[in-house]
Write a structure and sequence with these properties.
The protein is of the alpha+beta class. Helices cover about 25% and strands about 20% of the residues. The strands form five sheets. The protein has a six-stranded mixed beta sheet with strand order 5-8-9-10-14-11, with helices on one face. It has a five-stranded mixed beta sheet with strand order 3-4-2-1-15. Strands 6-7 form a two-stranded antiparallel ribbon.
Length: about 375
């Protein structure tokens, strides 16, 4: 990471991500002005959580994306141990992000457990929303210190494969946050199909799910060409694989591409997942930003933090993106830190052009469709 260890430590210094709450009267007046449904949700479900739009934009704040690996209720088979859950909470509390996407939660019960454990650590996340996708075990969840202005999770996305109508397994998280200065952030979250064998072909399933997510991004950009969109989550594939390149949208012009922020640890390494059985380190978790959002991203504070007992907590590492919610103009210095829409790694060994693993779709498909090696070859779910 640029700036070395000093920059890495600075990246996790406390931020004032939770501005003082407005008075109850101010909140109540805003709620009354809203529609009756919004008022009912605000009072019944959100427990008084403050709407970001009522607050001045913070100087900066963190967004966390973290696969917490089977954080299920204790009664569910395969749930992680109490020690592992405590390790997850230590990691999350140490990061103290303002907004986070958690992957592989067990749904509402698990999210309440996470909120309670964090509260005992002094970290309040009054807003939470679970994506009720088709996967009954592993749910996406968004937790935040503020209420978004819009929650539009997509749990109906589908594609046609092998003559079947196939639903995106975990759905897509979709929350929009807005502050008093008018700055809007669209947070999209995903957990794409794993590499575990499926009769329809896990690679094709993941590719089609990625395409549906890209359609969601395009839909926002069609309405807001300069939209600040951050796409995070576990994509279950490598940067050169077609599901990820589909998301990046390299065939589009700069303004419609997604940029791979490639969070780095203090050694400038980018791997996010460890498959213990094979000692395989891979990058399958991502933070992708639109062209409009790039100037507001602090790349030196966009990192893979090393806090607590990471190995006990999960087989994934947490990703942190640091943002300044004030519209800025694009600068050449920002784009200079990217190569083909992927963040450059400082001091990396140069890769010969002939060795670049971009290739054609046809070549990638031939390489990826060895279903005999797909059956759990990374242990990923």
């Amino acid at each position: 990471m640029a700036g070395g260890e000093t920059a890495f430590v600075r990246a996790l210094t406390p931020l004032s991500a939770s501005p003082p709450r407005p008075s109850f009267l101010a909140w109540f007046r805003r709620a009354v002005a809203a529609c009756g449904t919004a008022l009912a949700v605000g009072l019944a479900d959100l427990g008084g959580v403050v709407v970001a739009a009522d607050l001045p934009a913070p100087a900066e704040f963190r967004v966390l994306s973290y696969n917490v690996h089977n954080f299920f209720p204790a009664s569910v088979p395969g749930a992680k141990s109490a020690e592992s859950k405590a390790a997850v909470i230590d990691v999350v509390a140490g990061i103290d992000a303002a907004i986070m996407l958690l992957v592989e939660t067990g749904g509402q019960e698990s999210v309440r457990e996470i909120q309670d454990m964090l509260r005992r650590k002094g970290c309040e996340y009054p807003f939470s929303s679970v994506v009720e996708g088709g996967d009954q075990e592993r749910r996406l969840a968004v937790l935040a210190k503020w209420e978004p202005v819009e929650v539009q999770h997509d749990v109906t996305a589908f594609y046609n494969l092998g003559g079947l109508h196939v639903r995106v397994q975990r759905g897509f998280a979709n929350c929009t946050f807005q502050w008093a200065n008018g700055y809007r952030l669209h947070l999209l979250g995903a957990h794409l199909k794993s590499k575990v064998y499926h009769q329809l072909g896990q690679t094709d399933m993941r590719r089609y799910e990625a395409r549906q997510l890209r359609y969601l991004v395009n839909g926002i950009l069609d309405k807001e060409p300069d939209a600040n969109i951050l796409v995070v989550g576990d994509m279950n594939d490598s940067p050169n694989a077609s599901p990820v390149t589909t998301l990046l949208g390299r065939r589009y012009k700069d303004e419609k591409q997604l940029y791979d922020l490639r969070p780095l640890d203090r050694y400038d390494l980018a791997w996010t997942h460890l498959w213990q059985a094979g000692d395989v380190y891979s990058r399958i978790d991502y933070a992708l930003a639109t062209y409009g959002l790039l100037p507001e991203v602090d790349l030196d504070k966009t990192c893979l933090p090393e806090l607590g007992s990471l190995q006990l907590a999960s087989d994934h590492r947490p990703l942190v993106v640091t943002l300044t919610p004030v519209e800025k103009s694009m600068a050449a210095a920002v784009l200079d830190r990217f190569d083909q829409s992927i963040r450059k790694v400082p001091n990396a060994v140069p890769t010969a052009e002939a060795e670049r693993m971009i290739g054609t779709r046809k070549a990638r498909r031939a390489e990826e469709q060895d279903n005999g090696s797909e059956a759990g070859d990374t242990g990923e779910e």
